[in-house]
Amino acid sequence: MTIIKICGLSTPDTLAAALDSGADMVGLVFFPKSPRCVDLDTARFLADQARGRAAIVALTVDADDALIEDIVAATRPDLLQLHGHETAARVAAIKARFRRPVMKAVGIASAADVAAARDLAATLLAQADGEDRILLDAKPPKDAALPGGNGLPFDRNLVVGLDLALPFMVSGGLDPASVAEAIRLVTPWGVDVSSGVERAPGVKDPARIEAFIKAARAACDDGGDARGKVA
Ligand SMILES: O=C(O)c1ccccc1N[C@@H]1O[C@H](COP(=O)(O)O)[C@@H](O)[C@H]1O
User: Fold this and answer.
1) DSSP codes of every residue in 142-205
2) Which of 1, 9, 29, 107 is the most exposed place for a label (fewest CB within 10 A)?
3) Domain that holds residue 154
4) Residue 229 in domain
5) What is the pLDDT of residues 17-38, one digit of tens each?
């Protein structure tokens, strides 16, 4: 089964749409420049709504320990998504301090970036017990306000047949129309979407969330996740 993550949920209604449609993971964004950023009180409420139904993912960008501390206290996340320039050493320090698995985002635009993802996966595996994840995303355009969540794809051909030391998700410009092809082509452990299930930046669309999850599940049923990675 391919793991499906819906990221950037910020209201009870759209979170309910993701949960009712069968999302495996739901993402809360804690990056002030993002139109999906939630404050701690909203995040606490949404995390309580999601707990037990989907894994809770807290997304930060080069956050300091004080912010992560507050986020962990408010949401008790299952996974910390690190979407900035966190080094392997910083990732290790976050893991040691907060005792949660992490998913580290890596921007992909070339074979060298894929090699960097491979090295990072091996390093994370050596540091922990295989609980961590890698997220392969598009690189943001120069001068972009956001390091992710820009609705831009990367060349999936760079990662066809990719085998990392850790399970990985694919993101970047996915939507209900493109997710099945990405699953068939790459057979990732999971897929992650934000912009592609919105009607405007930061405004999630319940119908698009449902359509995305249906399309991803149909691709799995067609054998698109033939690698059968662990959940
Ligand atoms: O969603 C955001 O606002 C965001 C902000 C800062 C860093 C990452 C963000 N989202 C992540 O970006 C990718 C791709 O998103 P999209 O589907 O192309 O819009 C995804 O992994 C989100 O988790």
Assistant:
1) TT-S-SS-S-----GGGGTT---SS-EEE-SS--TTTHHHHHHHH--SEEEESGGGEEETTEE-
2) 1
3) 3-221
4) no
5) 999 999 999 999 999 999 999 9
Compute the average pLDDT of residues 196-210: 98
pLDDT in tens, 167-183: 999 999 999 999 999 99
ipTM of the complex: 0.98
CATH of the domain at 120: 3.20.20.70
Taking the alpha carbons at both ends of the chain, their separation in whole angstroms is 7
- In the reported structure, the alpha carbon of residue 201 is separated from the centroid of ligand 1 by a whole-number distance in angstroms of 11
Return the best residue to mutate from 194, 195, 197, 204 for the ligand 1 pocket (most ligand atoms within 8 A of CB): 194
pTM of the model: 0.94
